[in-house]
Task: structure prediction
Amino acid sequence: MTTRQSAPLIDRVVPARAPWSAVVARGNVLTLTDLGGNQAVDCLLYDAHDPAVRYSAPDTLQAAGTLFLTTGHTLLSTEHTPLMTVVADDCGRHDTVGGACSRESNTLRYGHHTWPQHACVENFLAEGARWGLGKRDLVSNLNWYMNVPVEADGTLGIVDGRSAPGLRVSLRAETDVLVLVSNCPQINNPCNGFDPTPVRMTVTEGAAR
Amino acid sequence: MARTPVLPNFCRMTETTAAASGTATTGAAREHARAQAGAVVDCMPMLPPPDGALWAETVPGGGYAHLLLPAGAELELVDRDGDACAHLLLYLTGRTWERLNPADTAKVQWNAYLGAGSVLLSDQGRVLATVLADGSGRHDLLTGTSARARNEARYGDGSAHGPSPAGRELFTLAAAKHGLGPRDLAPSVSLFQGVRAAADGSLRFTGSAGPGSRVLLRAELPLTVLVANTAHPLDPRPEYRCTPLLLRSRPGRPTGADDPLATATPERLRAYLNTLAFARSLDSGLREER
Result:
């Protein structure tokens, strides 16, 4: 049995700008598909049995030794334990430095006229509330498909994406993981090609380990 | 029977005070306890704080601290011996769900590195602190602090009071003293031990700028500050190494919207405008409560 041939346990198209969440059982594989191309997918992970143990961007970077995440990198928790592993990646580079867009940070980045716009933190708060999670539970997140280079002097920014329609990234759960996603609604920078599009979420039974 | 406590080197008293009368009775025990007063050790708080300071403390390598800063207060941090690493978490006092956000701090300022003039942003689009002066240039917004499991793997121990404490274990204790728990321990920043990223994304530890390096922060809102002084997680040396950190806070005034620090970039100006508007509402709320 291979990961991508098994019958999916979950197969769901997340509309543009919408949140999504699910528990992925240990050993199972979550595959994201960028349907329209250059669509940032903001993502947080929690230990499904103890949400105080959650994704840690710093611990993940310590272990990866690089800012750009791809196949083979393990997504670590605040206790430095594995939550998920990237087992396949068509895109080749994902971000965990840029965080999530918010109404509040949009006012700094683009101006106060953006205040009414939708943002990833709104999605995280709304979807997280369904699981009893709140503001204190939001931490630095993953951004699948988002391209954030850093120059020699430290200049950093979200630039045109490297993804394309149909590109997939697959994550194997190393423990039972609650996955919280915001299909990014940002329209003020190129992270979604200025046109947010749907993404597909597929959970399959993993191969026996 | 009186027992001499076994203390790590950093807090061993300069002179011992074994009471001749013993500690068999409450009176003798009280004498014994009181005879210890006045001892001076390398790492301790200074009370009363000298020279108008709000707080002055030397934090041992492997130690933690926590303090409150009123709006406008300045916090000076000094890497006394060249191997301190000040991991910091900042919260808005009384509204601790608003806290330091390293991702927004980097993204909004279009820069991965901290330096003089940088702002440390909250998740609510406000300035928690301004870096007024930076004599080090070796800081890290990206790789956070150490977890117990990592220090156990690297040094054999990561417990808070062991020989090589993990930053998260120290933060857990500091946070608890302000009613905060593990859910409140979001990614931290660290001062005095640098990390740089190459174009291919690879991370390189650049270490310390040397003894005496100083950083001066200004609190722009009332802050609760947690400090863990412990080795940087990417420090490649096989032996755990961390030296004392000097902390000193003093009263001051918040940055104004016409300050060159605020007008330096459009993003920072909007951050200070958000902060100043919020501070006015916060102040009137406090006055009404009185």
